[in-house]
Amino acid sequence: MPCGDPIAIKLDPATYAHDRRLRAEAGITPKTLNNELGYIRAVFNELRGLGQIDYANPLELMKLYKIEERELSWLTQEQIVDLLTAIREGCENPHVEPIVLLCLATGARWSEAQGLAPSRLRNGAVTYSKTKSSKVRTVPIQPELEAFIRDHWKRHGQFTGAITSFRRALSRSGIVLPKGQASHALRHTFASHFMQKGGNILTLQKILGHSSLAMTMRYAHLAPEHLAEAVKLNPLAAVTLSGQLLPLKTQNP
């Protein structure tokens, strides 16, 4: 517990801010510190809602650390083929391939796909219930994929832990991803390809189960119309389209 586990009523913003700064200097990441602040705020709010305390949340006005947004890594079509080849040729765990295919086909998180129960696959659609946002969402899949997964379950049973085997296959494929984005890159790959092929941003939000559109908007820049606007609306567009853009002349000193 930050601040040395103080009595709740004695926790004040200045003490918390000082402790947070020391922990940041010690190497605790801004994301972790922001998560902790959110948890502590939630505790105070819950206690007040239950009538257990009668004072205001002492950390209500504390600001979160600003976190620089990381570039989302996603796989190209060629890399997807390379990854699936590495899985099929060298994975000792039979569950890796169907889990990867589900992530790529539905934008699921690894844990959601791995935890899929047979009763959640029916009528050409997958339903994820135990999700990060606690929202139930249903995503259609190709008939061939449904048949493949059902046949897999008959031969190997329900999915079990396969993330370690997946990471080994990823390493064998030669694909290099930023730290911490290994399995999540599959989800980013679904979203990126969805937008590049003209998908609707609101539909993508529902498929991914994002609680806010702001989270989904990270992928909006990949939409074809967005990329086309970069060509049409840049300051050189008018002269370029009218054939007036001339090569720059080198001036003599």
From TrEMBL:
PROSITE patterns: TYR_RECOMBINASE
Signal peptide, first to last residue: none
Occurrences of domain Tyr recombinase (ranges): 70-232
Highest taxon listed in the record's lineage: Bacteria
InterPro entries (alphabetical): DNA_brk_join_enz (IPR011010), Int_N (IPR057084), Integrase-like_cat_sf (IPR013762), Integrase_catalytic (IPR002104), Tyrosine_recombinase_XerCD (IPR050090)
Pfam families xref list: Int_N (PF24624), Phage_integrase (PF00589)
Keywords: DNA integration, DNA recombination
Keyword Translocase: no
PANTHER family: FELS-2 PROPHAGE PROTEIN, PHAGE INTEGRASE-RELATED
Protein name as annotated: Tyrosine-type recombinase/integrase
Protein source organism: Pseudomonas sediminis
